Every structure is written in C-alpha cells, then in structure tokens.
Amino acid sequence: MNPYSASLFFDQDALADFQQLLRVFKQKRQKIFVLLDDNTRLYCWPLIQSYCAEMQDDIALIVIPHGEENKNIDQLQIIWKQLTKAGAAKDGVLINLGGGVITDLGGFAAASYKRGITTIHFPTTLLAMVDASLGGKTGIDFEGYKNHIGSFYQPLRVYILTKFLKTLPEKQWKSGLGELIKYSFLTGKDLSLIENFSSDRNQHLQKVITDAALFKLKVVAEDPMENGYRKILNFGHTIGHAFESFAMSSGKTLMHGEAVAAGIIAELFLSVDLKGLKKSVLEEYISFYQKHFEPFQISPSEISALVDIIAHDKKNRGGDLLMVCIDRHHMPVFDVSVEPELLRKCLRWYSELF
Length: 354
Ligand SMILES: NC(=O)c1ccc[n+]([C@@H]2O[C@H](COP(=O)([O-])OP(=O)(O)OC[C@H]3O[C@@H](n4cnc5c(N)ncnc54)[C@H](O)[C@@H]3O)[C@@H](O)[C@H]2O)c1
Description:
With about 350 residues, the protein is α/β, with parallel strands linked by helices. The protein has helices at about 10-25, 40-45, 45-50, 75-85, 100-110, 125-130, 170-185, 190-200, 200-220, 235-250, 255-275, 280-290, 305-310, 340-354, and strands at about 10, 30-35, 60-65, 95-100, 120-125, 135-140, 145-150, 155-160, 320-325, 330-340.
C-alpha cells in the first residue's frame, strides 16, 4: 500500500476520519490550531466547524490575508508567534484550511515549529486538491523567488472535501485546470477528459480529482525527496514559475495554474526541439490554451529578465538549465539540459504567439 495515499481521504470518509482523529487529540489534550485566510475563514470554515464543536475550547484560529503575496516570511513569523504565545508544544497540531498558499505556508510553519509538529491539510481550491496539498513540499516565496525557502514535510492527513469548491471563483478553477492539463501530458492521455471536465464540471469532478491526486501520490511514493522520477511533476513549471515570478514582480495578475498552463506551451516547444515530440501536439495544445485561458503575453524586452529568473530555478544544477520534456512517445523525461540560446529562442517564439 502506498503510504501517501493511505493518508488521503475524500468527502464522507474524510469527515469520519477527521472526527475520529479529533477525539484522539482531545484525549491526549493536544492543542489544535487552524490556519486560514480571510476567504477560507468565511467560506470554508463554516463547513467543518460543526465537526470541531466538541473541541471548541481547544481550537484556535490563525487567520491571515489571502493571496500569494502573503506566502512570505512575515506571515510565517506571525504563525510562529501565535503558536508560541498560545504555548503550542511539540504535540501541537496545525490544520491548514485553504488553497496552496495556506498548505505551503502552514506546512512549512508546522515543519519548522519545534522542529516539526503534526499537520493536516484541508485543501479548498481545485489546485490544492490535485497538487499543492499532496506530496509534502512546503515553503514560502523569498526575495521575489517562488518557493525559495522550504522543506519536505508530510502531513498526517489530507482531507479532500469537494463541497468546498462550490464557492471557488472562476479564476481559481482555471488555475486548477493548469495542473490538470499537466497530468494529462504526464499520463500520456489526450486532452478530452479535461475538455469534458471544463464543459461539465460536476459530472467529472470526483473522477478527475481522484485520478490526479492518486497519480501524484504514486509518483511521490516512488521518489519522495525528488531525487529523480518525481521531477516529472515539474513539467510546465520551470518556465511557468518564471512567468509567475515575473508577473508578480511587475504587478500583473497571473495565478499559479495559469502560469503552468502557459509554461506548458513553452516546454512543449522545447520538447519538439529536443525530444522529437510531434509539432501537432504543440499546435493542438495552443488551440486548447487559447480556448480556455486568457493568453499570458510577454514582450521581447522581457526575455532577459525571464531567462535570469529561470537560471535561478532550484531545479538547475551546476549551471545547466534542466527541464522536463515530453518525448515522441508522449512519455515525460526529466533533467533535459536546455542551452540558454535555445531557451531564448523559445521565449522569443512565445512572445510572438499572442
Ligand atoms: N507544494 C506543492 O507541491 C505545490 C504545488 C502546486 C502549487 N503550489 C503552490 O500553491 C499556491 C497556489 O495555490 P492556490 O491556487 O490554491 O492559491 P491560493 O491559496 O492563493 O487560493 C486562491 C484564492 O482562492 C481563495 N479560496 C480558497 N479556497 C476557496 C474556496 N473554497 N472558496 C472561495 N475562495 C477560496 C483564497 O482565499 C485565495 O484568494 C502557490 O503558492 C503555489 O506555489 C504548491
């Protein structure tokens, strides 16, 4: 049995397990903290609050402002301070109720407080359900670099409750879509499941989320610390992260998954050039992207800044730019070395696309 999927529970099973676990915490008099942002406090907390009723006096909420700009050292300190002030001990429990910002930040707070306290994720965005809450990567952005400081830290449980998605804004759905597209490429599937999902969300929701979450955990189980195979999950992310960091520093709004969806275009271009992927796959994806996303544009004058950001990416080693590509058999290949000149060519091509 995959130890990671053993800690993943969906919907009713999740709520039943959560109640059981809370009873254990109560018995052992463990202090419980729930990290939320202002939106998940408003929309998501009421959906699980009644389950915590028995423990009301032993649960403290830590509410931070929403948004990627808060996945930072200041908010991390606020969490550490609140835990410290409330006397959280080594057996404290931090429950993270939110999107990827909350699960990344809360996961890292839990990993670092007293060298590690128990943490549980309740992802509330599509993106966090299929990606961010799974696999134990935690961290914060620093000095303009995404996920620059962080650690691997596995949550005790991940509880996926699809009912949270009822209040998810449209833009956030699109962001989750970016990660789902990534899985389509990694599993060699065509885009039809994602196309169907986009046109009728409710009908395909359970299957799409379950398949994606279990696929991710299967990859994580093979390579928990990302020494090799797990790197395939970074497909679309090297250039996607650069788009995201660049957008953040220049005041443009670009969600993580939207950045990944755009990054996939550039990384498919490299796959055609370096790994013999059929050009028609790239062309088909560009049409799909244009249909479902507002295209992310870059200008030729921004290419140097983007190359600099990519050169700083933590996936690079020894000066080589390393990426994930899809090969001619539609299989992912990691650690593909990309010459800076090819990267520039790719970004120049991208800048002329939209
Ligand atoms: N650790 C990983 O493996 C991993 C993987 C992918 C992404 N990430 C990280 O995830 C982050 C992005 O996560 P995200 O897209 O979930 O963003 P997010 O956490 O910022 O959430 C998006 C917005 O939706 C709101 N929200 C969340 N749930 C809601 C709900 N149910 N109803 C209404 N509003 C809701 C939030 O308040 C926020 O404003 C990035 O920082 C990225 O780096 C991490």
